[in-house]
Amino acid sequence: MDTNPDTKTASQKPAAAPLLPLSDAVQEALAIAKRGADELLIESEFAQKLARSEQSGVPLRIKLGLDPTAPDLHLGHTVVLNKMRQLQNLGHQVIFLIGDFTSMIGDPSGRNATRPPLTREQIELNAQTYFKQAALVLDPARTEMRYNSEWCDALGARGMIQLASRYTVARMMEREDFSKRFKNGTPISVHEFLYPLMQGYDSVALKSDLELGGTDQKFNLLVGRELQKDWNQEPQCILTMPLLEGLDGVEKMSKSKNNYIGITEPANTMFAKVMSISDTMMWRYYELLSWRSLAEVADLKKAIEQGGNPRDAKVAIAQEIVARFHSQQAAEDALADFVNRSKGGIPDDIAELSITGAPLGLAQLLKQTGLCASTSEAMRMIDQGGVRIDGAVISDKALKAEAGTFVLQVGKRKFARVTLA
Fold this sequence. Notes:
Tyrosyl-Transfer RNA Synthetase, globular, Tyr-tRNA-ligase_bac-type, Rossmann fold, five-stranded mixed beta sheet, 3 domains, Structural Genomics Hypothetical 15.5 Kd Protein In mrcA-pckA Intergenic Region, Chain A, EC 6.1.1.1, protein biosynthesis, alpha/beta, six-stranded mixed beta sheet, cytoplasm, 421 residues, RNA binding
């Protein structure tokens, strides 16, 4: 690709090609693409792309860009990765783009303040684990991995200025987060305007046919369409996926909200967290995370509506998710562990800790073992009846634990075998 935006020459718009008929296979591929999606823009264009791909045998180029802003992924991140895998299974070329250049700008999407740019060291550290974790969902042998510094660095100052000339400030201010911040008098740094331009330029560089992203990325994805027109490329279509709600069923899944399921968490923890979601939210997880067909999910839902136990359906999605990121055996073991815990049993894989200072106040003990973040949280858990020693509920906040070995439990999922000296 010509990396200098200034070398583009205008050309007349070619005559529209006749519409291709949509075969059953194309219709099925379109349905798979739309499953769980928030929006597909523009659906008729994407249908024609699929039809041309079927006719020519040339796979579509499907792009997903992720800025390595954190080292670990959770199930919320895998919503778009699942969609990529589904399209990959249809025979299309998926491109996993690490935004190592754009990370240094900082994505302003959904932000009410300037996002601090990451250092090159932070970016490289986070990027090391991104693809490894994404490969738990994608087929790595059929995934093209790219870094956008490959073409963004080559732009240089002149190219960056020329690229910036492609968009007006008025159009940038159409972004909801920018307009809100401007109206509220919240500072907007000039470099933040570069982010959607650089993300859009990625689509030009990769000759993207379809770009995926969360609903908060829609503006940036549309910029890619416009820039591709400037480079006389057929504009990409856009598939936005909803933001998955976390364990609370309200807020989007986020580590900062502590309502997440990490894809590298232990199998038993992952299973128990999925089992904690509501019976209603369970179907949302089926829609966005399961690889079962829509017909299978519909049959399962019908069986529950006709009197089946929702727990059985929840066990099925929990096992599917655990098997994907661990193994089928781990999923079976996680179910056995969950059943054991539900009967008041102690899991097999609890931490073994040695603490000194006996006799030690219970709140301080809970803090030192890491089962509670603070003594105030420990007091709260004791008040709520959420603390057990060797299976017995402890309600005395003044209790001092004597020397010995015992199992300490907080809530339903936190255990430690403690040796207190």
